[in-house]
Every structure is written in structure tokens, then in C-alpha cells.
Amino acid sequence: MSKDETILRFEDVSHEFGPRKPILLEASFSIRRGSKITLMGQNGAGKSTIFKLMTGEIVPESGKIHRQGKLSIATARQVIPRAEMDLTVREFFQKMFPEKVYDIDPRIDEALEVVNLKGHAKMHERIIKSFSGGQQARLLLASALIQIPDLLLLDEPTNNLDKEGIKHLTQFLIDYQKTVIVISHDAEFLNSFTQGVLYLDVHTHKVEQYVGNYSNVLRDISARVEKENMKNAQLEKTIAASKEKMNFFAQKGGKMRLVAKKMRTKIEEAEEDVVDVRKEDKTIKPFLIPAQEDLSGPILMITSYTTLKDHKPKTHTKNIELKKNTHLLLTGPNGIGKSTLLESIAGGSAEGAKILRGIRVGYYRQDFSNLDFEATVYQELAKVMKLEIEEKLRATAAGFLISPEMIHAKIGHLSEGQKGLVALARLVLLRPGLLILDEPTNHMNFRHLPVIAKALDQFEGAMILVSHVPEFVKQIRIDETLDLAK
Fold first, then answer.
1. What does the domain layout of the chain look like in residue ranges?
2. What pTM value is reported for the model?
3. What pLDDT score does 117 carry?
4. 462 burial class (0-12, 13-18, 19+ CB within 10 angstroms)?
5. Nearest Cα residue to 35 out of 176, 172, 170
6. What phi-psi label fits residue 119: left (phi over 0), alpha (psi between -120 and 50 degrees) or beta?
7. What are residue 470's DSSP bridge partners?
8. Are 144 and 154 in contact (CB under 8 A)?
9. Is the dihedral of CA 107, 113, 115, 117 positive or negative?
10. How far is CA 360 from CA 346, 347, 429, in A?
11. What is the pLDDT of residues 16-64, one digit of tens each?
């Protein structure tokens, strides 16, 4: 089998996600055997939908998708569906196959070894929801790998992974001999293995195909846009000057009108030469998360906390006081109990943590499960406002790229990135005294990250942050670090 052979091809594919929401418009591109490709595009552009079109889970409204022979495709999803949270590990992996696999246990062990998730004697009976967010990310990846597909589709595979997990995954992808397409916003991770980029333009609904690694392609796109803008500026200058002359000649009458007519034809030709420049993805507007008024004294006191080691809880004593304008970074490897600790603090059930009475808690959960998936975006935002002012709600939503149409969509119908933007908008409207953030960079377009980092840096209440993205954390003032591994 040739490495140059095309294994998947989109031919003039058009598809909509609901009425008046086009994803693709006569898009054409091809994937070659053994290639390592990044799929890029703005939050909500439809990247995950393209994966579903590739697998055949959904059928395009028009155009053709050509798959070579018996091409096997497996997707490592972004999140584990709620319906699968009560399955055992064995049941979860068995669902990846259409028929019962009798020797599945050793195959599970091999897949878990690849994603660096060390098992134990009763691992196969363990319930999925008992794993941490980072461990669930590894299970999702392993659930695709166990199928040994010809084409591996990875949707935000580094989300929730710690440094060791990302390192392990990166090496696996470098060594992987088959074809891989990855959706991710992690530049360093992508640069390590990407050979080309498919860019889904949210404005034109076309897919642009580039050769080179992630950074080179971004540079190519920027250079092309700059060149096209310069050409357009020159053409528009020429058109404006020609129109002025044309109007002058037209007013003179007689033979001058014929000159004006010829000039009009030339102007029309020049207008046709103006290039439809690929618009840059929009970035969320700079924002502030206003802190609750009249904050004084210790907002949060932590005297003890529990971690997990070898699946056994261990309690540690510690004296931490978070006051106004104090930022705490919580660190530690996947599975040690970071998300569990944050959840218990936010819910008021942590035995060794006490929040000052009357403090409003803004909690950004990595799985967004504190949002009502059946509620509309409007309802979720209105819920946290002391006084519902529609104008303020809509203005805040617009700053997070929440359109007038999207504001009436159900939370459950949004992409993961869009849910993240709704969660941030909620924090702005809530005005919390204590801000708790669990992996706020997950699913986010890379253009949004500096804006989010600046907002967190300027937050004047108490804050606890968990993030495995060092470049993001570096942009935020951190006053204290609690390493759960120590």
C-alpha cells in the first residue's frame, strides 16, 4: 500500500447543523495514508461535525465522501457521555465493538499501557465516573486505540492531561504508522507531529488545505491575508480615483461620456479582482470578572485536604487563607484528586475547607455539568443575575461571541468551546467573591487564551486555579501554590 494513496476524500460536500447554520459549503479536500493532520477552526465552526461526516455517523446533505475500501475509523471523543459514566471499564471498551470481544481484557490492558494509565487487578470492574478528568481523557484515547484503526480521529486529546500524559501521547503519535487527524489548540503538542493542516473557515464554510507544521501554517495564513489586504487596498485606491475621473467625464457630455463608459467597464473589472480575504477568527472581547463588593477578612480557609494515591485516600493538614485579591494555583498529576477537591470546596462539602458566609462562589467546571443542558443560554445567564437586565445580559453574551441566535439555543446543543464561553459569561454576570476554575483553557480557541488569562490576572476576589497549560498560567498572578503531590 502506497503512502501517497488517498484514503478519504470530500468532494463538493455541503452540510448544515440545523436550519440556517451552514458548516460546509461545497468543501473538497483529501487525506493521504500515513499523514498526520491538524484540523483547525473557530469554536463552533463545525470541526467535530466534520469528524462525524468522516466516520459516516452523519450523512452530508450534498456532495460525496469517498472512503477507501474497508477503511476502519475510530474517534477519541472530547468527553465521555453521561449515559456511559456508570459503565465499568470493561463495558465501556466493549461498546467500541459491534460484536462481543471475548479476549477483551488483555486488549484493554495494552491500550491503557499506551496512554500511560496504569491498571491494577480490579481495573476492569472499576466504574468510569470514579476516574478523574485527566484519567477519563486517557480512557477516551484508549477507547479509540483499542480498535487499531486505519484512521484515528482525536478531538482535543490533551484536554485534562498532565505534563506526563501529553508527553506520552506525543511520542505515541510520532511513532504511529497509520493516519491521524487531530483537533487541538495546543501549539507545542501539534508542532511535534503535524505535517499538514485542514482549516475550516467559519465565514466561507470551505476547508483550506496546507502543508507544514502548525506554526508554519499559521505564518503562511497570516502572510497570505496581509498580501491580499495590501492588494485590495491598492485596487480600492485605484477604483476610487477612477470613479472620480469617470464622474468628471460623464458630466462633460459629448464624446467624454464614451470615455466615462469605457472607464466604468475598467472599474467593474478592477472590482472583480478584489480578493475575498479570509476573515480572521473573532476573538472574545477583553473582559473583567467583577468581584463581589465589600470583601474583607479570610474568604476561604483550608486546614486539611484529601488526595488519592494508589486509589487510597490520604489526608494532609495545611493552613491556607485566601483573602481578597489572593490567587492560589492547585497542581498535581492526573488522578490525585484536584477536581474532587475543587468540587467539594465549591459545594461546601469539603471537611477541611470553610468559605466565609455570604460569599458567592463562581465555579468553572471542566465538564460543564453545573450548567443545565436542557436550559437555553439566556436562561443559564439570567439565573446568576441579581436583577435580570436583558440589555446587560445580551451585551455580556455578545462579548463572548454568543450571537442573538445562539442565545436561545439549548446548552446541550452547543460545542464544548461554546459551553466554555457561556460558563465565562456566567462568571462575569455573577460577580463572585471566590472564583474556582478547573482547566478553563480546555476546548478554547488559542486566540481567546490571552484574553482569559488577563481577566483572571486582574480578578480582585479570591481565586483557585487548576491548569496544565504552563504558558497560560505564566500570564496570571499567582500568590500561592499548593502541590497535592507533596
1. 6-218, 228-273, 300-483
2. 0.68
3. 82
4. buried
5. 176
6. beta
7. none
8. yes
9. positive
10. 10, 11, 12
11. 876 667 889 999 999 999 999 999 877 677 888 999 999 999 999 999 9
Q: What pLDDT is attached to residue 61? A: 92
Residue 222: how many CB atoms within 10 A of its CB? Answer: 11
Residue 152 CA from chain centroid, whole number: 19
Direct distance between the N- and C-terminal alpha carbons of the chain, in angstroms, rounded to an integer: 51
CATH number belonging to the domain at 300-483, selected among 3.40.50.2000, 3.20.20.70, 3.40.50.300, 3.90.1150.10: 3.40.50.300
Contact 299, 462 (CB under 8 A): yes
CA 119 to chain centroid, in Å, comes to 29
How far is C-alpha 443 from the geometric centre of its chain's CA atoms? 2
Question: What 3-state class would DSSP assign to 199?
Answer: strand
Decide whether 6-218 matches 300-483 in CATH topology.
Answer: yes
The gap from C-alpha 371 to its chain's centroid, in whole angstroms, comes to 17
What angle, 0 to 180 degrees and rounded to 10, lies between the N-to-C axes of helices 390-399 and 416-430?
A: 130
Give the pLDDT band of residue 471 (cuts 50, 70, 90). confident
**Cell triple for 268:** 467593474
- Which backbone phi and psi does 148 adopt, to 5 degrees? 45, 60
H/E stretch holding 178 reads none
Query: What is the mean predicted confidence (pLDDT) over 311-328?
Result: 91
Can you name the residues that pair with 37 across neighbouring β-strands?
A: 181, 196
For residue 101, the SS3 value is: coil
Closest CA to 30 of 48, 54, 56, 7: 7
Q: What is the CATH class of 6-218?
A: alpha beta
User: What CA–CA distance (Å, rounded) separates 21 from 40?
Assistant: 19
Contact status, residue 152 vs residue 143, Cβ threshold 8 Å: no
Model confidence over 337-358: pLDDT tens digits?
898 899 999 999 988 999 999 9
Which is more confidently placed, 119 or 408? Answer: 408
Inter-residue contact 304 to 281 (CB < 8 Å) = no
Write out the three cell numbers for 438: 478547573
Banded pLDDT at 275 (limits 50, 70, 90): low
In 274-389, which residue ranges form alpha helices assigned H by DSSP? 338-347, 377-383
User: Which residues lie below 8 Å from residue 233, measured CB to CB, with a gap of 6+?
Assistant: none
